[in-house]
Amino acid sequence: MVANRVGRSRWAGVVAAATVVLTVVGAPQASAKHVTDYELAAWNTHGANTKNKLSLWQPQSKVFDVTDLAATSDVVALQEVGKLADFDKLVQRHMGKPYKVGFTCKIVVKMLREGRECDWTFPVNGVDEKRKVFVLRTDDVEDSDTEKGARPNMAFVVRTSTAAVRSWNYLPPVRSSAVHEGDRGLLQLVLKDNTVIYNVHADAKPAGGNVSALLKKATEATAGLDPRPTGWVMLGDLNIESKYLRAFVSFPIRVVDPGVPTHDQRIIDYLIWSDPVVLKRFTASVPATPVEFGSDHDPVTFTKKP
What Gene3D superfamilies does this protein map onto (predicted)? Predict the structure, then answer.
């Protein structure tokens, strides 16, 4: 896609802040796949329940669910995945028959946040698919009992047979009277070939107001890894239309979106990546499906551009 360079005065401060994130770090690993070789996806599941309160973690016949996205992707970045307590109930309720869904989970802690690391099995056309699931409560307090309490939490779903995982972690936001990096930080996934992927859910008010802080955080965190990767990928709900983001980033940072609205007539779910390889690019699309998506956001998939 051609970058939109039209400025917006209300983003002037963001433009200035974003200039610090354009450093390319390190040298690529000789054995590493290029990040565009992976099939990636992002979806804000809006609490991971449909309007009829059906879990999007279980196979549905009339609703597009997480298994549909995970079946065709190496890595899926999910936002608003529901409260940990609800996820634990789901694990118990939907194991075995009739859904033939199985979770085996352990409790983990990342940067003082409680999470779950699970082995997940689900059926696709009569064949069992296996994935690794990393779920994290992104705040350091208990989930709220309100509907909004289910929204901050994030997850990765990984097909480890094609995307072996080295580590995962959480980069919490700085929040003080002087500095505010937003409501949520970044969920980080590092693959064994040194590919670095960040799951993002930027602030809604002001819309995408912390994106520049998250870009800086991703660049600095990636530079601190050993061995140092050549760049990073960030995907999820940016809460700012992609055309505005293109106005204040430049190579090696690039933006790819599906070209159609993903939420409320806006394109706010997409992928950003920092990479010096000019000729390798992503293409993005919203999955074609005869059923509804079960969330107020459309999922987006990202594959290598031919």
Answer: Endonuclease/exonuclease/phosphatase
Q: What is the pLDDT of residues 87-138, one digit of tens each?
A: 888 787 765 555 567 888 999 999 999 999 999 998 888 888 999 999 999 9
Quick one: DSSP state of residue 245? H
Measured between alpha carbons, how far is 165 from 161 in angstroms, rounded to an integer? 10
* pLDDT tens readout for residues 218-251: 999 999 999 999 889 999 999 999 999 999 899 9
Q: Select from 247, 218, 240 the least CA-distant residue to 231.
A: 218
Q: Which domains does the chain have, with CATH numbers?
A: 9-300 (3.60.10.10)
Give yes or no for a contact between 217 and 244, defined as CB atoms under 8 angstroms apart: no
CB burial of 198-236 (b: ≥16 within 10 Å; e: otherwise) equals bbbbbbeeeebbbbbbbbbbbbebbeebeeebbbbbbbb
Q: What is the dihedral of CA 222, 225, 230, 236, to 10 degrees?
A: -40
CB atoms within 10 A of CB 96: 8
pLDDT in tens, 36-79: 999 999 999 987 776 666 778 877 778 899 999 999 999 999 99
Which whole-number Å values give the CA distances from 144 to 31, 73, 108, 110, 297, in the listed order?
A: 44, 31, 20, 19, 22
pTM of the model: 0.86
DSSP one-letter code for 19:
G
